[in-house]
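To assess whether the prediction recovers the assembly geometry, we first specified each molecular entity separately, as shown.
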Amino acid sequence: MTFGAATREATRARWAARASLILKPLQSALDAFPPSRWLMRRLDRRALKGRLLAIAPPYAWLLIFFLAPFAIVLKISFAEPDVAMPPYTEVFALIEDAGSFFLSIKLNFSNYLLLIEDDLYLRAYLNSLKIAAISTALALMVGFPIAYAMARAPRRWRGALVMMMILPFWTSFLIRVYAWIGILKNEGLLNGFLQWLGVIGEPLTILNTDFAVYIGIVYSYLPFMVLPLYAALERMDESLLEAASDLGCRPVKAFWVITVPLAAPGIIAGSFLVFIPVVGEVVIPDLLGGSDTLMIGRLLWAEFFSNHDWPVASAVAMILLLILVIPIVLFQRHQAARQEAAR
Amino acid sequence: MRKYVLGVGAALCALVVGASALLAAEDKVVHVYNWSDYIDDTILKEFEAETGIKVVYDTFDSNDTLETKLLTGNTGYDVVVPSGSFLARQITAGVFRELDRAKLTNYGNMDPAIMARVAIWDEGNKHAVPYMWGTTGIAYNVKKIKERMPDAPVDSFRMVFDPEVIAKFKDCGVYLMDEVDDMHQIVLNYLGEDGNSQNAETLKKVVPVLKAVRPFVTKFHNSAQIEALANGDICLTMGWSGDMLQAKNRAIEAKNGVDIAFSIPREGTLMFFDMLAIPADAPHPDNAHAFIDYLMRPEVIAKASNYIFYANGNAAATKLVDPAIVNDPSVYPPPDVMKKLFVVTPYDAKLQRVATRQFSSIRGGE
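The predicted structure of the complete assembly is given in tokenized form:
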């Protein structure tokens, strides 16, 4: 025991030494930079150093992989299509006039006007939201019993059950969606089985319909619903239900009055995790949906690939982002409130 | 000291010379981006064995995908295969480098008549050489069509554009092409209009025709029909000549009892040429030339035609192609059919938007 503790202590010291190897030069560089010196004096030095190190990577990540691409897409959305490489006009240009340089900015709003004038886009946005909302509700209905059973299973099984939920992720998403084509097509496994049972005479047309899209989405996104639900339900104190039962509350009522409110954080988190990515989903409607499954992701694809109109495609993407920002912000608020409450 | 400096100098020189020699010689690799199901793999292996240049082969199934990648730039591809009218637009955008004829020793094998045809997209044949050409026609499951309509007009586009005819095949599955431009041009030609019309008003005439048949169409796609037709999942489709003949052969090989036929409709149809070209920013242009030159050898391109059932543009190769293919009127059409085949030039941006919008609203079943 003592030996183990000593080794741990030594390891910790070694890591601290290594860390200071990196931190020291960083510290001195910061100290040499006048504004940071001023900042340092104002703030507690050690707290700042720790905070900076913890905050910098995620912010750098967001800056590089979110803000920069966002700025590029925003720029393209104000350009005009052109037969060139890349296929749009420049928004910013440096113009020389009588020895002085001017930055010329040409903003073209017609891409956004097009989205308003043609109702195709509005219908596609609405339909995407509709499909996302229905899929989320279906995923909740399917996911809740699963999560509930997992949370009530004997403790030693739970790890294995969670593992089973995650296991499908080890296969490519694309292959799993493709597998559904084999199951749902007219001469596929499902129709073959139903005909063998004698339930149906003629094969049901499921593939290439909205129904197939719902099946594909609910299947693919189910783990995102189940895992947060499981996390919430597992923490629930079962004695509350016993108490309710002792006091004469029927199980159904106890479920609605006790279980659901306590699972609410999981329901909300799971719903957002399903809803937000489904709105922009493109692979599932393309593979399983019919040609009349109108979703904004496919429309974006058409603007980009068929029309070669990157500016309009960018404008469609910007509006989609705006639409999604609302639920994302709501979700963030909810998460923040929860963390506050947990503290 | 002086000796030392000299020594170091000499060593540096040797290093620089060595390094530049290394840089001058390209890596022994060529990145090829071609249509799916469009080559006999042994051709790639034999090219690798002969030249020592490794072929990294990648595929696409629509001109749109290729064009978007090319316009983005830095694709890393050395040889790409766009169809004629797309090639024309891409040349305007500055996507391609001019071919170095000195490096194409087999250039003389090409058919002058074909070269003249493709010059409408590539003036003076500066940027590309034809790989294969074909037509968009109709393929069908002989048995299922006969069961449903014994006197079906199988040599006419009425099969897919006449609502009364296509309705009979709804239950066994019908695919149409998912190429915006091709569908407009073919329908206009079917209506007796100029297939190459560049007029927005004329283009609108396509809408009622396709809308009327939309309820009977299972899917719009460009490549899925090969498998679907061969497996018996669908019974009628529009498709590219060679693809449909591949489907026919796959069904024969699978011995699944599916009998497929392909016809070039009597109304005439679109003729396309897939062209070998080298992007301006290709990392290995020398290897790209070597690869294209290899494909212009009569015995090589004949082997490709024998495998994929497309006609090539190589005059010296015709006698080496399997007689069954050369004599197949759906691959090498007789002169009277040839007269009805037409080629097109690309739409400009405005017209492209009109066409795409129309087509997506048809596809969406509005």
